[in-house]
Amino acid sequence: MLGKTRWIIAEGYIPQGGPHADDPTLRSHETACVLNAGHQPAALSIMVYFADREPAGPYQLEVPARRTLHLRFDELDDPEPVPRETDYSTVIESSQPVVVQHTRLDARLGSLALLSTLAYGEDR
Amino acid sequence: MLGKTRWIIAEGYIPQGGPHADDPTLRSHETACVLNAGHQPAALSIMVYFADREPAGPYQLEVPARRTLHLRFDELDDPEPVPRETDYSTVIESSQPVVVQHTRLDARLGSLALLSTLAYGEDR
Amino acid sequence: MLGKTRWIIAEGYIPQGGPHADDPTLRSHETACVLNAGHQPAALSIMVYFADREPAGPYQLEVPARRTLHLRFDELDDPEPVPRETDYSTVIESSQPVVVQHTRLDARLGSLALLSTLAYGEDR
Amino acid sequence: MLGKTRWIIAEGYIPQGGPHADDPTLRSHETACVLNAGHQPAALSIMVYFADREPAGPYQLEVPARRTLHLRFDELDDPEPVPRETDYSTVIESSQPVVVQHTRLDARLGSLALLSTLAYGEDR
Fold first, then answer.
1. CB within 10 Å: which end of chain A, N or C, has fewer?
2. What are phi and psi of B75, to 5 degrees?
């Protein structure tokens, strides 16, 4: 199988500010790391859920066959950017089985803090 | 499906003190991030278990349809607050399938440390 | 169900030293947080696996009904202590369904780093 | 069972540099911690996937019966090293059931940050 076709990341929060805010590598960010180990491209459709407004999306992306995509939420902008300092959650639906892991780098205070977890996977 | 109706977080500990104790964003805290991606409101009933006393709860909360709730344990107070510097675990039962992720921010020493994990989900 | 009867933590490493080494709360340590949400006491039998020697254990512990145990690996001593600065893994077998989450605090350099994950659960 | 025979780590990134770069214990690194709690040696075949090139591998390793292997990705070199500062994902196939947990230490800025998660397991 090599994965599932729907993945849910319940946590989501992109911190704002700090001394590395102009450095794309070190500034606070979140990623959804998506592995497509199969032999067909995986078409992703991503919805972002909030506490107090309608969901944003779908964001459409493709992960080529036998490739990984470390998707940065702070680089999404179509149909709209994901706001910083805002609670959110994510649902990723894929045309092919994939595996998703969620990571945050928090650099607000200068030093680094990290979190990561396997997302919740199920088949549609 | 979009989730499960019972989620268990075996780890739980809210650190006390530190230089950010008066800042709700940066002070040490724990969250249970709950996504309800479905089309019905999810009624949550939460029990908090301790090492040496009877459980606290139920705490009653609702996550509206198509919304996320980043529940902070340090803001629970009905029927009672969750004490700091105390080992605990959490069981969340939901009337609708949801997904739960657990996160801690530890700011006791001023700089930040983070942990996060998908909770353990099962259907009742 | 409220859990599984066998849990595996593949990661294990207790760092040594640092400025908080004499403070049980802040010194580097690892925990296996075990929730027994059921109505019977859970008898735990724990084996610790190493890279280059036979496993240690069984360590025998009990989690009372409706209680959590945040087990610190640096406090185990029967049949033998778990050495610091040594790679290990853990298998926890329980007489009752429980849920296990693994956490490390690394304070070697003075500031804090945290990791945590749900363990791998299966039924015996 | 004591595990699964295929494990996927979707996140992968080995940071570069920092004041501990010459210290194997404290320099930034990633590990796949593999427990083989069974009574037969487990033969591992590991493929590493990238964003923009063909996968590397297979890397062939063995975990003896009743032993753990905390595999460091920065020590792999056959058939080729895993590059630093590069997004990757990992698929581990095992001849015997094992359990895999993924950990990163990020020491770029001197202080330590940690992340860890259970990998995604399935049977082949």
1. C
2. -110, 0
Tell me: the pLDDT tens digits for A50-72? Answer: 999 999 999 999 999 999 999 99
The whole model's pTM is what? 0.98
Confidence of residue A1 (pLDDT cuts 50, 70, 90): confident
* Residues B10, C42 contacting (CB under 8 angstroms): no
Q: Could you give the 3-state DSSP secondary structure of residue B90?
A: strand
What ipTM, to 2 d.p.? 0.97
Interface test with C, best of B86, B120, B122, B123 (most C CBs within 10 A): B120
Q: Look at residue B53 and tell me if it is in a domain.
A: no
- Give just the sign of the alpha carbon dihedral B4, B6, B7, B10: negative
Q: How far apart are CA B67 and CA B47, in angstroms?
A: 22
Full residue range of the structural domain in which residue A73 is found: 4-122
Residue D111 in contact with partner chain B when CB distance is under 8 A: yes
Cβ contacts of A62 on chain D, cutoff 8 Å: none
Give me the number of domains chain D comprises. Answer: 1
Q: Give the closest-approach CA distance of D48 to chain B in angstroms.
A: 24
Which CATH number belongs to the domain containing residue C65 in this structure? 2.60.290.11
Q: Does D25 touch chain B (CB under 8 A)?
A: no
Asked if residue B34 belongs to a domain, the reply is yes
Does any domain span residue B46? no
For residue B86, being part of any structural domain is answered with no
Residue B39 has pLDDT above 80, yes or no: yes
